[in-house]
Amino acid sequence: MKARIMTAVVHTLLSLWLSSLALAQDGEPYIHDPSTIMFCDGKYYTFGTGGGGLISDDGWTWHSGAIRPGGGLAPDVIKIGDRYYVAYASKGGGMSGGHAGAINIMWTKTLDPKSPDFGFNDNNIIATTDGIEDCDAIDPAFLLDPPNGRLWLTYGTYFGFIRIVELDPKTGLRMPDNQPLNIAIDCEATALMYRDGWYYLLGTHGTCCDGANSTYNIVVGRSKMVTGPYLDNMGINMLKGGGKHFVSASGRLIGPGHFGLLNLGDGVQKFSCHYEADLDRGGRSVLGIRPLLWKDGWPIAGDHFKEGTYEIQSERSGFALELAVDFVRMPNVRRGFGPNAHTEPVTPIAPQELADVSKNWPAGNIDIRIADFMVRPHQKWTITPVANSGGYPGSPFFKITIAGTNRALAATADSEVVAVPAFTGNPEQLWRIDQLIDGTYRIMPKAVPYSKEPLALIAVGGCTPTLAKFDPRSDKGRWNFKTP
Predict the structure, then answer these.
(1) What is the full DSSP assignment across 165-230?
(2) Whole-angstrom distance, CA of residue 91 vs CA of residue 73
(3) Hey, is 39 helix, strand or coil?
(4) pLDDT digits (tens, 9 = 90+) for 452-462
(5) d(C-alpha 414, C-alpha 158), whole Å
(6) What domains sit in the chain, N to C, each tagged with a CATH number?
(7) pTM attached to this predicted model
(8) Does pLDDT of 4 surpass 50?
(9) HSE-CB for 71 with a 13 A CA cutoff
(10) Using an 8 Å Cβ cutoff, are 255 and 205 in contact?
C-alpha cells in the first residue's frame, strides 16, 4: 500500500511539474536579457548578456550555441537587407563600478556559426555616457520604422533617462549630428514597436538580478511620433514615470523583462522576454515566449494555451466541432408548464455520459462536422501537450481527443479532418494552436499527408470543417475554446 501511495504521489508531482514547465520554453532555455528573436537559415536565435545565446530548430526547444563576440550586456538584433546588426553594451550598468556606458554595433551576414558566411564586422561604438550624466548607455534595442525605413535605437536604465537616437540603416552608424533625446524614466531594457500609426515604448520596471525576489515587470506607453512623448492609458508621460501595465509574474515564473516582438504573420504575434526566476528550474533565468494580443489600441500579454477539456467553437457561426455520429436523445421529461406544473416534483436530470452513446460509434474513422453545442460527449475535446514531439514558437504540439477516449483528431491526405480510433503521435495528429491578436485561435496540423503547404482548420459554411489556407481577414479559420 505504501508503495502504491508513493507511486501516486510521484505521478502527481510529475504531472504538476510538466504542467508548469509548459509555461516556459523546453530544453535548456537559460538566458538573461535576451535579444529580439531572429529566424535565420531555418533556425531561431537569441543572444544574451555575457556573450553567446540560444538556438532552436522550432522555437520551442532551445539550447546554447549562438555566438557573438564582445561579451558585455543586453544585446539586440535586427535584420536589414542581407545584414544582421547586433547592438550590445560593452561597458556600463555598474560594470567596473560605474555607469560610464558604451553601446557597440557590429554586423554579420548570417547568425549560423557553422556557415561560411558567418563572421562579425565593424564593431563600432555609437553611443556613450560618462558616468556622471543622468543616463547609462546600456540595454540597446532597435526599431526599423515601417512608414519610412528610418532606424532608431533606444537605450538606458534606471540610472537616469531612457534615450533614443537615429542610426543609418545602411551602416548601423549614428546619423551625422544626431543628438539623443530623453523619452522615459524609471525603467530599463526598453523596446519599440509600431502598429496602426502608433509607436509603443515598452520598458522593464522594477528590480532585477535578485532571482525569485526580483520585481521586474513590463510597462508601455504610446506616441504618434517615434521621438515621443510616450503617454500611458491615463495620459501620464513616461518622462514623468508613466507606464501602462503589460505583464508581470505569473505561476512559477517570476520577473519578466526585456520585451522582444516576434511577428509570425497572418495575425499571429508573440513576444519574448526573460523571467528572472523559473521556480521549477531552481530559480534560473529563462527565455519565455507568449502570445501578444491587442485591445483598444494597447498591447495585451496573452497566456499560454492550457491543457483541458473544451468545446471547440467556430468564431464564424458559434457552432461546435463534433463527431458526425447519431444524436442520442436525453430521457423525456415533463416540460414544466400547465395547470399542475407547480405541484410536480423537481428532479435533476443526469448529464449524458460517454458510455451512454459511444457503444454505437463506428470502430474506424469518424467524420467531423460543426453543429449546435449541446454539452454532449461527442462535442467535448481533451487537449493535451505531447512530450518529445517538438513544437513551434512558445508552445509544444498538442493532441486533440474526444474526452474520455483515445480517439484523436487527424488531418487526412485529401485535406479533411477525421477522428481516428487511436492517437499514434503521427504528424497529422499533432496540432499547433496559436492565439491570434484578437484573442481567438488558429488551429493547424503539424503536417498534412503528401502536402507541403501549411493548412489550418476552416469552417466552410455553418456546419462543414475542412483544411485550407488561413486567411487572417476572415472568421472562417478562427476558433474559441470554451469550458463545457
Answers:
(1) EEE-TTT-SBPTT---EEEE-S-EEEEEEEETTEEEEEEEES--SSGGG---EEEEEEESSTT---
(2) 8
(3) strand
(4) 999 999 999 88
(5) 57
(6) 27-301 (2.115.10.20), 308-331+351-482 (2.80.10.50)
(7) 0.92
(8) no
(9) 4
(10) no
